[in-house]
TrEMBL record:
UniProt-annotated location(s): Cell envelope
SUPFAM superfamilies per UniProt: Thioredoxin-like
InterPro entries: Thioredoxin-like_fold, Thioredoxin-like_sf, Thioredoxin_CS, Thioredoxin_domain, Thioredoxin_ResA/DsbE_sf
PROSITE patterns cross-referenced by the UniProt entry: PROKAR_LIPOPROTEIN, THIOREDOXIN_1, THIOREDOXIN_2
Keywords, alphabetical: Cytochrome c-type biogenesis, Disulfide bond, Redox-active center, Signal
Protein known as: Thioredoxin domain-containing protein
All residue ranges annotated as the Thioredoxin domain in the record: 372-518
Primary localization class, coarse: other
Superkingdom of origin organism: Bacteria
Gene3D superfamilies reported in the protein's UniProt record: Glutaredoxin
Organism: Neptunitalea lumnitzerae
Xref: CDD domains: TlpA_like_family
Amino acid sequence: MLKTCIFILVTCTLLFTSCTSNNNSIKGVITGVEKDSSTQITHTQVYVSGSTKDSTISLKYFNLIDYDNLFGGNQLTSKHYSTSDSVYMEFENSGTPQLKEIMIFDSTFTTTKIFVTPGDTIHFQIKNKTITFEGSHTDNYNFFTQLYKQNYNWSHYKGDIKLFKKETDSIYHLREKFLQKYLAEHTNTTDAFKQTAKEELFFEYYYNLIAPRDIQAYCATTNTYADIYYNNTESVLATLANSTGNIETEMLDLQSYFNNIQIDNFKKPTLLTNDYYKKALVDFTRFYFNNSDYIQYSKENFKQEKKFILQNYSGSTQTYLLTRLVTDYYKHGLGKDQAAVDLLQKNITELKKNKLDKSYSDALDKIESQLSLFNTDLPKIVFNDLVITPNNDTIPLSTVLKDKKIKLIDIWASWCAPCLNEIKKTDKTAKQLITDKNIEVIYISIDQNHRKWLQTQQRLSNHFLSTNHYTLVDPNNSKLLKFFHVKYIPRHIILNSKNKVLNANAPDIETNLNQIQNQY
């Protein structure tokens, strides 16, 4: 499906369009508030094995994604063996059945979801690019594979929000009908599967409404855009704010657009193992139920959103939302001054008083360690890190940082599609701003392929904000990356003229420049 292009990794199906609408069957599909049973979890072993007869798909790159933690990640296993044509794993599953996602990375990208029940023994086979499951609950396993074959893919936004709504409704109805047909033909599905499948379709639909697919995928290897669109995680409000469509067409009654959905639809702590539920929960809380204007991730909005969460959610749902509040606002740049640092630190301390899932505490620990860098000097060992210039000279980082200017460091790579997307967004206004404010933009690559690094510089030369290009001599042992706990890119760091840390995890370049203009 993805072939040789490198795109932002998403765990949702890709898109297409269709039309018709029937709001009555959408409104209130999933109702009722569930009690928080998060303290009654037990675990049972699950066994998964698989083989492939498809030469284009290698199981060496088989991944099982678990959404039981904060952001979702690879399933923790007690045993895991994989070769090009077979895979075997054992793992402890929490005491409730839940959806997992299979991802296989090779010359093509293969993905599907599977409903796993504690104690399951599951076997799958891949043939002609199709995954077929057998095992303890065979009818539970094959629904999503068959659903994805129908090409009921979500529509992307084309400049008309009413058309987008109509197409999205239509796809949801087609998926609902397919589920009903599947259940009629597969009588051995469990009640838990039926409920989970309905909830998955329901919350995936609502997530696509609140986060329209309007971000086109960029292929880093061919320097072209693909016919693939990702969700706008800043909500439909950002989609409309950036739209060039007709103003009258874009006027939106949010209550009608969201089918008058109520907050009680989201008070379901047992669904914190469901990826689309968690995405929708965060976005509807932040952008709709909280009645906030277009979010700017400020201290004031942080406090307002926290107050709303405390007043409207409880138990594990509240803990999840408060943890996401801290992680999301920090990711978007909160922490650029001492007051913001203190606010985040206070909330991390409050959260840590609870018994947290390890993924929650790990995320908070990481932010805490980065907050501790605020207004600190770079240690000498970081200045000694070695980088390579485009002329193939090796110099220490101290030489790169010698000028007495505010410095915006952009850590990137030629193979990183989000990095390249961001670089391509820069414009003449940004270039003028760095001149007016005497800002030095420094691009530090973690590329290990020197040729591709140089080629990408040349190809995007009109988009870079400076010619200050360097690549790390040894990214795996870089003191710079270690000091700033760099685990993902793009990553941005702001230093003052004396190389004190002003922001160890600044947001995108455009936001950074506006931040520097207004504050430093």
